[in-house]
UniProtKB/TrEMBL annotation:
PANTHER family: NADH DEHYDROGENASE [UBIQUINONE] 1 ALPHA SUBCOMPLEX SUBUNIT 5, NADH-UBIQUINONE OXIDOREDUCTASE 13 KD-B SUBUNIT. Its main location: mitochondrion. InterPro entries: NDUFA5 (IPR006806). GO terms for biological process: respiratory electron transport chain. This is NADH dehydrogenase 1 alpha subcomplex subunit 5. It holds the Pfam family ETC_C1_NDUFA5. It is a peripheral membrane protein. One of its GO terms (cellular component) is mitochondrial inner membrane. Belongs to the complex I NDUFA5 subunit family.
Amino acid sequence: MAARALSTVVKRTTGIVGLPVAHNAQKTLTALYAQTLEALEALPETAQYRVNVEQMTRTRLDAVKKATSVQELEEMVNAGQVEELIVAAKNELKLIPKIAAGKPWETSKASKLNVEVI
């Protein structure tokens, strides 16, 4: 399914200091979400982090594909402006390798804890 371009209404500012307007948010988010889904493949399918991030990413990617305007996309996702979504997606891509390296799904065997009740 080909992605539709979001309407051409020009946004002048995000209103957030230091966060410039994204001029091609749909293309940027589509690419970032595809990269995120690919990066998550390095984690076990049963890892809760992977499950949660895949679900969120697929939901947001679907919204990007369905939205006909930036405003509609922002309302559908309900997680801030598209520029904030881009920042969040970039941060997620930085986090995934750290999660993979830490392997939080590999829990050590619980050690016996001696508790003395006073």
